[in-house]
Model the fold of this input.
Amino acid sequence: MQAKKGILMARSKSDIANSAIRIFLQEVGKFYDEERGYESFGPKVGQKDELLAFFSHQCCFCGTAIDRKSLSQDHLIPMNKTSLGLHAWGNVVPCCGACNNEKQQKPWREFIIQKVGQEAELRTSKIDQFVDSKNYDPSLNLHEYADNLYEDIGEVAMTLIRLRYKQAEAGIKELLKVDG
Ligand SMILES: [Zn+2]
Done:
């Protein structure tokens, strides 16, 4: 019983920390967009249209035709604590639903080769062009900030949960004593 609770708490801790990292990457992405002179990336309808136009209304990975409705958005550099890609112009590309499901956290260059073989070079250079055109720096390093956030927020959240849990436990015991 005690061990089970420990595992659950550990998983919750990483859930909370991962959520915090995503929020952080969204917010930093907004700032990065504005600093580069863009309206922060939604994507809003007009922004979706711009993505579709750049990639000729095709999935940027496999070439399947897509439109506003069927467009999925993939973060070239994934939004997770290891890769720290931003939700921002130049890191979000339009793709089909199937590619979005398949790619997950894989490096996008490898994914394209796996997906389209010979055509990979063409598609890769189109994506590189897109990233360049938006002045997104793929080597932007946020680890100094994000790693601390990940560790700290998990600790703080768990400390608060444990504190409130103890209080709830005491309260419930008290209640049951009175009832009995
Ligand atoms: Zn695709």
In short: DSSP finds six helices and two strands in the chain. The chain has one domain: 2-179. Residues 59, 61-62, 64, 95-96, 98-99 surround zinc ion (CB under 6 Å). The mean pLDDT is 92.
